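[Primary structure, fold]
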Amino acid sequence: MDTIITRIWHGITRAHHADEYLEYLKETGIDNYKRIPGNVGVQILRRFENDKCHFWTVTRWESYQSIQQFAGDQYEKARYYPEDEKYLLEKEPNVIHCETFEF
């Protein structure tokens, strides 16, 4: 059975920035994920909570080496883009990685 590694990043914006940030995510991180050999899927999860909006990017990878091509040697650290500062209420320092099995 091949093991897939799932990488999960979480961020929070103001609710009124949710649609704009979703577009920004698609133009930055999502486009970058898809260009990396070994990326096998990308999903964005979004949930509104009062005046905030939570985002999770959930990416699937063939290996940790593939993830390193996107995130660098310290692949457990979150990767941010310049305009994230405009949208995000805080910058979580790390992401999580999980072995993923599909049945």
